[in-house]
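note to self — DONT lose this again. spent like an hour looking for the file last time. sequence + predicted structure for the chain T wanted, 124 res
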Amino acid sequence: MRDYREYAGLLRQAARVAPHIHFPAQVFALTACLGWEHVAYPQHDLDVRTKTPLLLLNSRHDSATGWNWARTVERQLGRHGVLVTYEGDGHGSYTISKCMARIADAYLIDLAVPQRGTSCAAGT
């Protein structure tokens, strides 16, 4: 999206096509970035270089931020990022999985980077 006019037009179109579907809060959160000069439209591949790889946490069945998106970010980061997957559903895997919280805490406190492919079983 380039600007608010385009955003508002998309909302009107969605309301016409699906008048009984309500928008989730994330739809309205998009306006927070409209007009920012440093936000790239259209999206572009990441070019990140870090001493310590970035930690990505995502639920496999997260309806707000799809796991496939997280995999794409991990792929683009290459050796500069690692994705840990919660094998359940929900958004905010840190708060819904003690296993994910332990991994994230170890990363934040000790810079312990988990191995690529690390996951936590649902319910753990």
